[in-house]
Amino acid sequence: MVYLAHTAHWQFLGLVIGCVGWILTMVTAGQNEWRIWYVEDVSNVASGTAWVGVWRACFYSHTLPDFEFCRSIGITDPFIPLEIPVSQVMVMVTVILGLTGNMVGAYAVRNIYFGEKTSNIIRLLFTGAGVLYVLTGASCLMPLIWNMTSILTNQTITFPPEFHLPPAPTTQKVGVAIWIGISASILLFFSGILFLCYSYPTEASRPATQPTSGDKHLEHGTAMFMSKLENGNEVSSRARDNIVFQAEEDL
């Protein structure tokens, strides 16, 4: 088996980075703090701050039954802007693509360290993992940029009355979930580039070893021992075949 482990150290690092990036995409998907709304009416929103994610909107309240009051946002809700249902779909696609990229990348690195696959299959695995990581980073980044643009232009969301939120905030800013997602995208892009840059060696073989002086002495001693052993066998054979010795035994 050709030794190739020394050729994939950067790709092993890329696999670790890709796994971290994929975990951060799941953190981004589960966070509520995509948009941070600041509102003037604090009769329900006690702190004057609400968090609007792609799955639900939440705020702290002293007047409503739940101290942390949350309402889910569905993909078919008519009041949400287009970027929110698109983000719901894209974050799920991102998680699936990232998981697939991790599996392909892990299998590729495993075959470098332990496998016996041909060079064409190894190249295909590394290229596939790199493409999947790049696609994961792109699918994660697109909804983040879209939502960030809506926040920076102070776009509003007309929530229904059961959300207890005003139709427009006083101000709003980018939440921590978007920054985590951007960091995840950068890591995934970097991981994909590392996998795509893998170069299978044209001649990968074990280096030829030169015999040392100790090996030469050992070979010389072995040869002398075998020579003496053969000479001893010849002498023993002649002794057994000695006719005079056999005649004396017969008398």
Find the CATH topology of the largest domain: Butyryl-CoA Dehydrogenase, subunit A, domain 3
Order of the strands making up the biggest sheet:
4-3-2-1-5
- Which CATH-level-2 architecture of the largest domain? Up-down Bundle
**Low-confidence runs:** 204-209
* Major beta-sheet overview: 5 strands, antiparallel
Using the coordinates above, name the CATH class of the largest domain.
Mainly Alpha
- What structural category characterises the helix and strand content? alpha+beta
Task: Give the CA-based shape.
Answer: elongated
How many domains? 2
In whole angstroms, how far apart are the ends?
68 Å
The helix content is 55-70%
Q: Mean of the pLDDT scores?
A: 81
Order of helices and strands: HEEEEHHEHHH
Our count of helices gives 6
Give the beta-strand count: 5
What is the quaternary state of this protein? single chain
Range of strand content: 5-15%
Radius of gyration: 36 Å
